[in-house]
Design goal:
Shape: globular
Strand order of the largest sheet: 3-2-4-7-1-13-14-18-19
CATH class of one domain: Alpha Beta
Strand content: 25-35%
CATH superfamily of one domain: Class I glutamine amidotransferase (GATase) domain
CATH architecture of one domain: 3-Layer(aba) Sandwich
Radius of gyration: 21 Å
Number of helices: 11
Length: about 425
């Protein structure tokens, strides 16, 4: 199936609602909210496998541990039962209730004493201000937000253009501040974003056309919501499904367009665990099977060449399971079992003619961009490598360069597991 096909119901209505939100006066801001402090965020880049005991186990552990954790499951990003043609089939259904019960059973399988669906979706918005549902939330020690369409969380758990909290969302913020865990995958991770939450887009179209505020029918167009999501995570922009869909280019472009210095781009089945969220002691650890790209734009410079966008000076780190990152110092630390890699191979970096795994390329490969970067850090044959977009008119070239401060870590002694401080630039390809 073409990965651009969407199963979102009511897309036009959602786009209209988003447009109305964006047209609201910029002077109208969300009411003051208590800052998250003390609890843990576990934000997954989507594609979370049922057997990922590391991530599910950590959610349960942070919620009180096996046999004690009580976890509320929110799936308002899914369509409601009435919009799911397979609602009656437990093996094929995909709606808020069905998905909520699925995640609840899965969390109990991984050790939670109790996991319950919180019955809120776009057809049951009133439940977000129900005292009975608030009482259910108050009884929980952790929360899990499922995937789907993150804008449905905005319309279900926040109040209109003012973006004030519903009673349920206010209760979840209080629980997080008091030490609870809030986890989410895909849209459930994106919704933790602060200002300029991404709403869609592909890397090539992002590099070619730039970004725009909104929520668009064209899934390749880079869009964002200026007011953001719930604002639980403020160390940088968030992106998800990164290596699987080649979203590194769109992550860099959105950060540059919106004036953000940093973006965390999460691979599938991989999470950042943000401990002591919102406090001076906030720290980040990577969990899972792939990695997290951290793009540092503090020294980045944008411009144009031949009428097309360019950027230079982006610092690129790729962190994997167990690695830690301090968002205050911008410093990464290798996880246990990894050691510095001294490159000894003289094998050249393989050519890459599809840097961002284009949907139009039948021979493309996921994790293409990070693969080129890891190969570069592991060889003595060259200090720079290039990766071109599959699309042309114009084509873009990403130039990756080893800096004096570039470091790679290895688990097996020969290949790169993680690296820090490569430099990235993107320009129209030379004719």
């Amino acid at each position: 199936m073409n990965r651009h096909l969407r199963t979102r119901c009511g897309r036009t209505a959602l786009a209209l609602a988003a447009a109305l939100t964006l047209l609201a006066s910029t002077a109208q801001t969300a009411a003051a909210r208590p800052a998250p402090a003390g609890g843990t965020l576990i934000l997954v880049g989507g594609g979370l496998k049922d057997d990922n005991s590391e991530i599910y186990g950590e959610i349960v552990q942070k919620a009180g541990g096996a046999g004690k954790a009580r976890i509320g499951v929110l799936t308002a990003a899914s369509v409601p039962e009435s919009q799911d043609p397979d609602a009656a089939d437990p093996d094929a259904c995909s709606n808020s209730r069905c998905n909520g019960l699925y995640y609840a059973a899965l969390l109990e399988h991984h050790g939670a004493a109790d996991a319950e669906w919180i019955p809120i979706d776009i057809e049951h918005v009133d439940a977000a201000d129900s005292d009975a549902v608030v009482a259910q939330v108050e009884s929980m020690s952790g929360f899990f937000f499922g995937g789907g369409d993150q804008y449905r969380y905005v319309t279900s758990l926040l109040h209109g253009d003012a973006r004030t909290d519903s009673k349920v969302m206010a209760a979840i913020r209080r629980k997080l501040a008091a030490g609870a865990v809030v986890a989410g995958s895909s849209a459930g991770a994106q919704i933790a974003s602060g200002p300029d939450m991404v709403t869609g887009g592909d890397s090539y179209q992002a590099l070619r056309d730039g970004s725009a505020p909104g929520y668009f029918e064209d899934p390749t167009r880079l869009g964002y919501l200026p007011q953001g999501g719930f604002g639980l995570f403020d160390a940088g922009l968030l992106d998800t499904h990164t290596g699987t869909y080649g979203r590194e280019g769109r992550a860099i472009r959105l950060a540059a367009d919106t004036g953000h210095d940093r973006v965390f781009a999460l691979d599938e089945n991989t999470a950042i665990e943000v401990e002591h969220a919102g406090t001076r002691g906030e720290s980040i650890r990577v969990l899972g099977t792939h990695g997290v790209s951290v793009f540092d734009l503090r020294a980045a410079r944008t411009g144009t060449t031949g009428g097309h966008w360019t950027i230079d000076g982006v610092r690129y780190s790729y962190l994997t399971d167990g690695d830690r990152y301090d968002p205050r110092t911008w410093h990464a630390q290798a996880g246990a079992g990894k050691r510095p890699l001294t490159a000894t191979s003289d094998t050249p970096v393989p050519p890459n003619h599809d840097a961002f795994y284009s949907a139009a390329d039948p021979d493309g490969h996921p994790y293409s961009f990070s693969g080129t970067a890891r190969a570069l850090t592991a060889t003595t044959a060259q200090r720079t490598a290039t990766a071109d977009t599959f699309e042309s008119a114009p084509a873009f070239t990403a130039l990756l360069h080893k800096r004096g401060g570039t470091r790679a870590w290895t688990a097996d002694g020969t290949t790169t597991a993680s690296f820090t401080d490569l430099e990235v630039g993107v320009h129209p390809a030379a004719d």
